Amino acid sequence: MMPRRDNIIIDKTERFADRITKMYRYLSEKKLGDRDMLKQIVRSGTSIGANVSEGQFAQSKPDFLTKVTIALKEANETRFWLKRLYAYGSLTDSEFMSIIHDNEEIINILTTITKTTRENLKNERGERNGK
Questions:
Q1: 103, HSE (Cβ side, Cα atoms, 13 Å)
Q2: I want to staple 27 with a disulfide (CB 3.0 to 4.6 A). Which of 11, 32, 41, 66 is the partner?
């Protein structure tokens, strides 16, 4: 897969990683939120973009699908940690709504990418098998 310019998922996941990192620093400095929970969310939240970025240089379509699927799993884990931080009062209503919106948008895009890629791979296999 060749990297694409102006790729919306790369842009969104890079900006999201920046937001997560800033949130981590802010909450750590203010001592808001469990330290282990904050470490988990910074790992999962930044891993989304790292996996999407890796997928841009995948060796094959199945490799691309693997990377994007991992990114989707990390986005779902990040949603879990965001909800926990909100439930524990570490995030205000507006902070939570803003960042969860970005997270959900990424999940929706990655879900579409994984579904489309799976369908394309299935169709390619069918064509090769004479179907």
A1: 24
A2: 32
> For residue 95, which of 12, 8, 27 has the smallest C-alpha distance?
27
Digit-by-digit pLDDT tens for the chain (131 residues) are 444 557 999 999 999 999 999 999 999 999 988 999 999 999 999 999 999 999 999 999 999 999 999 999 999 999 999 999 999 999 999 999 999 999 999 999 999 999 999 999 999 887 766 55
- 46 Cβ neighbours under 8 A, 6+ residues apart: 17, 20, 21
**Contact status, residue 114 vs residue 68, Cβ threshold 8 Å:** yes
> Could you tell me if 40 and 127 are in contact, meaning their C-beta atoms sit under 8 angstroms apart?
no
Whole-prediction pTM:
0.90
**Opening angle at CA 96, ends 92 and 97, nearest 5:** 115
